[in-house]
Amino acid sequence: MDLGERSIERAEEFERLQRDAAVQRIRNNLVGLGEEFCLGCGDKIEEARRMALPSATRCVDCQTKIERGR
């Protein structure tokens, strides 16, 4: 297997992982679980926030920064 084939395989695997993660996020939102990890910083979103706002995709800090335009 040459470098080009390995690069293609890695790209395909990355794409599959991204797709699987997106499907899982959609499933979580459909059942009211929301995101487990913040899309901004990657930290875990507190359970209280997830319960209060199941559609939350960011932690309070990251969402606040976005809303304040930072």
TrEMBL record:
PROSITE patterns, alphabetized: ZF_DKSA_2
Family annotation (InterPro entries): Znf_DskA_TraR
The keyword Magnesium appears for this protein: no
Keyword Metal-binding: yes
Record-given protein name: Phage/conjugal plasmid C-4 type zinc finger TraR family protein
SUPFAM superfamilies: Glucocorticoid receptor-like (DNA-binding domain) (SSF57716)
Organism: Erythrobacter ramosus
Keywords on record: Metal-binding, Zinc, Zinc-finger
Lineage of producing organism: Bacteria, Pseudomonadati, Pseudomonadota, Alphaproteobacteria, Sphingomonadales
